[in-house]
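User: Hi! I'm a student and our assignment asks us to look at how structure tokens line up with a sequence. Could you show me two examples?

Assistant: Happy to help. In each example below, the sequence comes first and the structure tokens follow. Example one:
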Amino acid sequence: MSWSFISEDWENISLHDCDISGFTLDKDFVIAFEYGFDVCKENPQNLSGRHKRTGNAAIVLKNGAFHSAEYPSYEDNGKEVPAQNIDFSELSELELEVFDYYFENGVFTLECITLHGEFCKVKLTCGKPLFCWNEFTEDAWFQE
């Protein structure tokens, strides 16, 4: 797909409360956001002076690959519930909403909530993440 805007400035993109609409693995790993994500006013690709929401958008992880996904361990009434792995084939079925993300040492980590309220972590490896979109549709929800 051809994009009008491509940003490497991952620290000035907010994925909080953004829904992932799909994952595609080809030459690069693509995370689709049908309803977009938020671009902070500090991002060089956002010249509006305001935090803005995009339309259809994607994160393209250059030379990306699936690393792992899991429901982390947790404690329930004093009993430790072990972590549970999630297969790549299951990811698109989970209807994930992003809580937070970060990129460190070639690993792109998404912390998400599933449709059923379960917390999960998805780790993907890549050379660099590219945040891609074609338009701004409205102000971001966290406008000052």
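Example two works the same way, sequence first and then tokens:
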Amino acid sequence: MTTFLRPAAAALCVLAIAACSPIYKLDIQQGNLFNKSLVDSLKPGMSKRQVTLVMGSPSIISSFDQNRWDYVSTMRRGNGRMETKDLTLFFENDSLAKIEGDYFAENPTELIREATKYKRQYPDDKRPDEDKKKQQQGS
């Protein structure tokens, strides 16, 4: 009898663990997210400080080449494949010399709006919180 129970218990455990895998996966964005206008605002001759003010800190600064800055970003939409984008800036004498690579050309606010599309949204004029505030102010 115990020879039958052990394999049955093991099979039951495997099925229980397999059933725990999620059907829906969230969109995951990591790293720097840039839009086209931000990258277009970079001009040759800008100092490292000016570039940092526009783009933020780079993801990677090589210890061996301080004149190369890499901004890396990854995006996985749901169960899809992970996309990786890399924007590389090259400096000469502490001024921007060359821009290479690609980036997510989408507007960051649009990506945030898309990420919250499955969350229940209320029209602006019918939000329950605002109705409660109006009722409290009126009484």
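Here is something you could point out in your write-up. The first strand starts at residue 28 and ends at 31.
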